[in-house]
Design goal:
Main location: plastid
Distance between the termini: 83 Å
Radius of gyration: 19 Å
Number of helices: 2
Number of strands: 7
Shape: elongated
Structural class: alpha+beta
Family: Belongs to the ycf35 family.
InterPro entries: Uncharacterised_Ycf35
Subcellular location: Plastid
Largest sheet: 5 strands, antiparallel
Order of helices and strands: EHEEEEHEE
Helix content: 10-25%
Keywords: Chloroplast, Plastid
Length: 131
């Protein structure tokens, strides 16, 4: 008997969630979900056993929906979410910083599992000297 587990996340932006999955080389596809009141896009991570992992839009964030009896990932679900969360945070920082003029110059995964992100922004204001 299968039991679906629904885990709340803090993932609110589909674009950044997809970028995080891409950075982690996690294959996924979009699935359109239209109900009576809204139109949402969910993300599906296929598994070879046919029991897919889904990020389903629920109110204001994505929930991870999975049947834990059929989990096929190389690490536990908590580690899976942690890895995605770390990449998602990096993508949000880069994307939102670019909106205010910063550019990423270094994004590195460290041996300890942390990431190093360096951003820069040049000030193009003309300096006027008065004598």
């Amino acid at each position: 008997m299968s039991h679906f587990t629904h885990m709340k996340t803090r993932f609110q932006n589909l674009f950044y969630l997809e970028k995080a999955l891409n950075r982690l080389n996690i294959a996924h596809k979009k699935e359109e979900n239209a109900d009576l009141n809204s139109y949402n896009i969910n993300l599906v991570i296929p598994q070879s056993n046919g029991y897919n992992i889904e990020f389903v839009w629920h109110e204001d964030e994505y929930e991870l929906v999975v049947d834990m009896s059929f989990w096929e990932q190389p690490y536990p679900v908590e580690s899976f979410i942690d890895k995605i969360s770390q990449q998602y945070a990096g993508e949000v920082i880069i994307g939102e910083s670019q909106k205010i003029g910063f550019q990423p110059i270094k994004y590195q995964q460290n041996v300890d599992g942390s990431n190093t992100l360096i951003l820069e922004r040049w000030n193009n204001e003309k300096i006027v000297e008065t004598v």
